[in-house]
Amino acid sequence: MSLLHLAIISPFLLAIFIPILYKLFRNVHTGWFVLPLPILLFSYFLSFITITSNQESITESVPWIPALGVDFIAKVDGLGLLFALLITGIGSLVVLYSIYYLSKDKEKLHTFYVYLLLFMGAMLGVVLSDNLIVLYTFWEFTSFSSFLLIGYWYDREKSRYGAQKSMLITVFGGLSMLGGIILLYLMTGSFNISEIIDQAAVISASPLFIPALICILLGAFTKSAQFPFHIWLPDAMEAPTPVSAYLHSATMVKAGIYLVARMTPVFASEGLWLWLVAGFGIVTLFWGSFNAVKQTDLKAILAFSTISQLGMIMSLLGLGAAALHFDDVKNSFFGAATAAAVFHLFNHATFKGSLFMVVGIVDHETGTRDIRKLGGLMNFMPITFTLAIIGTFSMAGLPPFNGFLSKEMFFTGVIRIIELNIFNFETWGMLFPVIAWVASVFTFIYSMILVFKTFTGKYQPEKLEKKPHEAPMGMLISPIVLASLVIIIGFFPNILSNRIISPALESILPNNTIDVHITFWHGFKPELFMTIGVIAFGLLLFLTLSKWRRIYDLFPKKLTLNRFYDSGLEFIQHASNKLTKTYMNGSIRSYLVYIFAFFIFILGTTLAVKNAFKLDTSKVSSIGFYEVLLALAVVIGSISILFVKSRMTAIILLGAVGYTVSLFYVLFRAPDLALTQLVIETISVALFLLCFYHLPKKKNEEKVRFKLTNAIISVGVGAIVTLIALTAHSNKVFESIAEYYVKNTYTEAAGKNMVNVILVDFRGFDTLFEITVLTIAALGIFAMIKLRMGGGKKNENK
Amino acid sequence: MKTNDLILQTTTKVVLFIIILFSIHIFFAGHYTPGGGFVGGLLTSGAIILLMLAFDMKTVSQILPVNYIYMAATGLLFAGGTAAGSLFFNVPFLTHAFGHVDLPILGDTALHTATIFDLGVFLVVVGVTMTIIQTIGEDE
């Protein structure tokens, strides 16, 4: 266990104490106890920059399940560090913001911060694990904590819907990713990313290459809300705004991007990877920005904007992977796209984080996020307005903010792809710059909508729930920090290039020759003209928005992906309900029929297929008088049960059969078994009597009718059990363990009663779990009977 | 299930103690002769059931005001605790210890941690059986 491991698990450890702290210090906002941790972690991870900027990495390993090749290997390299800094840095700001956003009197703060810390630790685990199974475990933890956070206000129906949707989609992706991981293991024999990368040649030659690639990409695309899996992200906006800023824009949704970046050296040898990643990315970029324009909820605009920006980063990663196919000048030429991806990843976290916080402030201070109700807030919230301007202009790609720089680099990346002459990019590659440009126009439009519809125009006080005013200082600190970063990086982008971007690039494209030097002015190149075109067309379309807005109505409402998801979910529930009802009819008799029929079928077929039946009478001792007598008693007892009328008699007869069996044990000299059987029989008769007391009265005239199926099943069970008993006696496959117990019972366990020593000592584990199961069963019965009456309406009245 | 059977009630008053004493004997004897926590527990439950049959449930729960769920939980704690206790002595889970101790009155006695484990089993068996019977029996 190293300090690095401790850093990864520290959020989980703190999460344990949060509920206690919440209960002890009700007067202090719980957020203050959480805040120090991300700050501490952030400064801890900052210290790694000197190491990673020399293109080195640090690996610490703790064995977890060494037998299966699963070890908790923590590795800090450029890419992991970039994410770790984002997680802890944005995490600190979000926690600070949430302290002012969530009221300590009304909200259940302990659950909120427990979930948030769970997420933080899980996310750190995802980006710092070198072992894929560990990564997967943390990955699902992020889905899980995201589910809990989206459903934080679980009394709202929309929150529950959004939580379930995100869970279903991301867990579906997570499971296919697990499949991909297992396929990778089958090909390489290792779960460690660094070892898998070393064997990239083996993987690309394997027939499992394409299935693995698709499985891994499904995981990444669902997590990063790529088209057509993006539908969960807008619904995830039901989460409290600090959560949206943190999980659903800055960090968690970038886990998919992280995975694609991490896996690039493994898969990028094939054109399929380039096409899929770049293709889905560019489609998502367009679809997200196109749909953002029609939204009226501020957070919905941001959600679609996030989808679109994620698509942009994704497509850049796909295009940049082309660099791996060249090791000369062209490496640097195409790899520029990857540099843009990493740079934009960082920039997006800054401006989108601050925008979410701004929207949160607007929501908090006015009571609504609907742009049709908002307007003219500029005079009431000057600081928020300034922050919004910085954030949106950066998002729209306007100078002098950091978004402009990465947008220019994005254009460079997509233009250069035209010159790529492998994998058929020379034909369809032309589409990339075109779509990218159109999408950027829409990005410009929704950015403008976001800021100008909210802060300028007519002030409509009658539509607002509260009288708007500037947010408290504490709430403004976090967005101010982020907005300052937007400006600082805009002017001095190269403080990042050697410390953050280059090391991350080294992880994505090993041995690259990319020289990351970001400049403001490229000269009059196509990129600049594209930006100017975006601004001109964007302004034009923004001003004429009301005229062309109707094109959104042209899309048939029945064909949306959401509709598909909803009806699919409904269909699954309906169908499975129907299917279950066909056999779960609530009658114990039917269930017994299923169980016994299955029993006969499975054991009978096994006996027949394996040809296992064997009758060996050589070791059978002679049958004595008492045995015949007892056997007769059992047979007569059992048969007469069938013909008695009253239940009481049937129970007593069954008890008599049981007592006779215990006499058999006496004959075979097993006093322990005899004793136990005797007492068990007594108690079960009492239990039967009790239970049958509750059954509806049986009419005396009702005759027990003969049922052929039941007869076949009962005879079948009897026959199978007899056959198995005879076979078990005749086949001696293994040496009996009895001798071992005879020898060791006294020497090892100091007991003379072998049966009891086996129970408490040799097989104590069995006993321990058996009594646990017994207790669970008792609790189950207790709960079913005691709570049955209290359920439903009665419970609500209490 | 209200009963008023004088013969059964009178017999029960005597037999009950014999059964319980026997069950305690069986429990302790388990290590060397037939018996053990499981049978012992069942016997004790049998005794209590007999009491319930002779009198009625309400009377019995007044005589023995025991929460059987707690009893089962205590038993689990005993068994689990004995099993986990071995970890403190740096030996594998569920390793038992034993030895001979010279106790006053009883003389030379063999002591075994398995007895504590078995006591757990005893308590769980009584607790579980009685919980089930009591809940089903009280349900109208």
Helix content of chain A: over 70%
Low-confidence stretches of chain A: 791-798
Tally the helices of chain B: what do you get?
Answer: 5
Radius of gyration over C-alpha positions of chain B, nearest whole angstrom: 18 Å
Number of strands of chain B: 2
Using CB atoms under 8 Å apart, which protein chain pair has the greatest interface? A-B, 40 and 50 residues
Counting helices, strands and paired strands, the structural category of chain B is mainly alpha
Low-confidence stretches of chain B: none
Could you report the average pLDDT of chain B, rounded to the nearest whole number?
85
Please give the alpha-carbon distance between the first and last residues of chain A: 51 Å
Termini Cα gap of chain B: 10 Å
Describe the structure.
The complex is a heterodimer of chains A (798) and B (140). With 798 residues, chain A is mostly helical. Chain A has 35 helices and 2 strands. In chain A, helix 15 packs antiparallel against helix 16, helix 17 crosses helix 19 and helix 18 runs antiparallel to helix 21. Chain B is mainly alpha-helical and 140 residues long. In chain B, strand 1 and strand 2 form a beta hairpin. The longest helix of chain B is centred in the last third of the chain and has 26 residues. The relative contact order of chain B is 0.17. Classes of the chains: A mainly alpha (798), B mainly alpha (140). The interface between A and B is large, with 40 and 50 residues.
Walk me through the topology.
The complex is a heterodimer of chains A (798) and B (140).
Chain A: H1 3-24, H2 31-34, H3 36-46, H4 49-52, E1 58-65, E2 70-76, H5 78-101, H6 109-128, H7 132-150, H8 157-188, H9 193-198, H10 200-205, H11 209-223, H12 232-235, H13 241-250, H14 255-267, H15 271-292, H16 298-320, H17 329-366, H18 382-396, H19 402-416, H20 425-428, H21 431-455, H22 473-491, H23 494-508, H24 526-543, H25 545-548, H26 561-583, H27 588-609, H28 625-643, H29 647-667, H30 671-693, H31 708-730, H32 738-749, H33 754-762, H34 764-790, H35 793-797
Antiparallel strand pairs in A: 1-2
Helix pairs in contact in A: 1-6, 3-5, 5-6, 5-13, 5-17, 5-22, 5-23, 6-7, 7-8, 8-11, 11-14, 13-17, 14-16, 15-16, 15-21, 16-17, 16-21, 17-18, 17-19, 17-22, 17-23, 18-21, 18-22, 19-22, 19-24, 21-24, 27-31, 28-29, 29-30, 32-33, 33-34
Chain B: H1 6-29, H2 37-54, H3 57-63, H4 68-85, E1 98-103, E2 107-112, H5 113-138
Antiparallel strand pairs in B: 1-2
